[in-house]
Design a protein that fits this description.
Helices cover 21% and strands 26% of the residues. The N terminus is likely disordered. By secondary structure, it is an alpha+beta fold. The protein starts with 18 loop residues before the first strand and ends with a helix. The longest helix is centred in the last third of the chain and has 21 residues. The strands form 5 sheets. It has a 5-stranded antiparallel β-sheet, with no helix packed on it. A 5-stranded antiparallel β-sheet has the order 3-6-11-8-9, with no helix packed on it.
């Protein structure tokens, strides 16, 4: 039986905000194209006043004046984590067909405040669209927040997305309600390092073969998706000049090896090709190949050997900025999330391990 976590973990609240369906909207509407709104993540601005995104970890930030704030999105856009000033973050839901406005804050002191939003689930089904903020009548946005100079990109699968990390039952199926990227190793590592983090991740995806895919490989695996702005949408190529990370962390391979129908040679070659693809976009970045925490036994050995072989090959070619890092495999002592995925506590452990590694690698002290 499914049990959603309602506990406080390290004083982090998961309180869900209440949606409002009252229209027309009362207050000062701020359009998404306002120059004082800051965005991070792969977002399509084909319509500047309806930015669209599909990857978890996408962020929207602004400084505003007044005593209240509402968030305006397309109905059925999914889940966000919201933070006002330095208060505890809370979860916001757009999951009813007519819910388009959510109250984020009321009764604030009449002054300057900051809002930080993070899309915390995978948006393929929801197709989220941000439509702006609503302030007190006559109020405005202030000069935008300043982003950290340090930049990380995470490329991954369900572990990076946060699949099931708000569940405490390993038998639970996937549900958006129990997925929360905000509490993943990736997001927590970025916070610890005071870095931006942009995410390209999807549950079930592999570097050559998606979960339980054919032995010959899947056509829609990560290398096929990576050059586009939105997942499974091949109309808009991503402009890589918009974000040049200092370090790229690739956490793939779990799905390639998750069912006994894989080809190790194909996996190795796919990694070689994908590293070349990433390197072409980021010629100066350090690239770290991660081995996730869900594999064990024979498949864990294969994953580690394959990653080591790929790094050795690139080092011989002269690319010395390719690195390796292994997470400690999970064993249940920190519980499991849904479908045997890392729990919130496992993600915290992973974040501690990766933060320490990247701090030394990048000299980010």
């Amino acid at each position: 039986m499914k049990k959603l976590l309602t506990l406080v973990l390290a004083s982090l609240a998961l309180t869900q905000a209440t949606a409002s369906t009252t229209l027309p909207i009362k207050g000062q509407v701020i359009k998404p194209s306002d120059k004082n709104i800051v965005y991070t993540g792969r977002i399509s601005f084909a319509n500047p006043d309806a930015p669209t995104f599909s990857y978890p970890g996408t962020q929207i930030m602004a400084n505003f004046e007044g005593t209240s704030l509402k968030l305006f999105c397309k109905p059925m856009s999914g889940y966000f984590m919201a933070q006002i000033d330095q208060a505890e973050p809370f979860k916001v839901s757009f999951n009813a067909p007519k819910d388009s406005v959510v109250t984020l804050a009321t009764a604030l002191t009449d002054g300057c405040h900051t809002v930080r939003l993070m899309y915390c689930v995978e948006g393929l089904d929801y197709k989220p669209v941000f439509r702006g903020f609503v302030l007190d009548e006559g109020r405005r946005l202030l000069a935008p927040p300043v982003l950290p100079e340090r930049k990380i990109e995470f490329i991954g699968n369900s572990i990076t997305c946060g699949y099931g990390n708000e569940s405490i039952e390993k038998s639970d199926p996937f549900e958006y309600e129990t997925e929360n990227h905000y509490y993943t190793y990736a997001a927590e590592t970025a916070r610890q390092l005071k870095a931006q983090h942009w995410v390209v991740a999807r549950s079930g995806i592999g570097v050559y073969r998606n979960y339980d895919g054919p032995k010959t490989g899947s056509k829609d695996c990560m290398p096929a998706q990576y050059d586009f702005t939105l997942f499974n949408d091949f109309k808009e190529k991503w402009d890589f000049s918009r974000y040049q990370p200092h370090v790229v962390c690739i956490n793939l391979g779990t799905n390639d090896l998750s069912t006994n129908n894989y080809d190790v040679k194909r996996l190795r070659q796919a990694y070689v090709n994908f590293i070349a693809q990433v390197r072409a976009h980021y010629p100066s970045a350090k690239i770290v190949m991660l081995c996730g925490s869900m594999l064990n036994g024979k498949e864990l050995d294969i994953a580690r050997r394959t990653l080591n072989d790929v790094v050795d090959e690139y080092h011989k070619k002269g690319d010395k900025e390719l690195y390796r890092f292994d997470f400690t495999p999970q064993n249940g002592d920190l519980y499991y999330g849904a479908s045997w995925h890392p729990s919130l506590w496992q993600h915290q452990k992973m974040a501690g391990e990766l933060t320490a590694y990247l701090r030394t690698l990048m000299q980010w002290f």
